[in-house]
Amino acid sequence: MVTRDRGDAVLETKKSKLKPPPMFKVILLNDDFTPMDFVVAVLQTLFSMDLERATRVMLKVHKEGVGVCGVYPNDIAVAKVGQVVAFARQYQHPLKCVMEET
Ligand code: TYC
Question: Which of 58, 69, 80 to mutate to test the pocket of ligand 1 (most atoms within 8 A of CB)?
Answer without folding.
Answer: 58
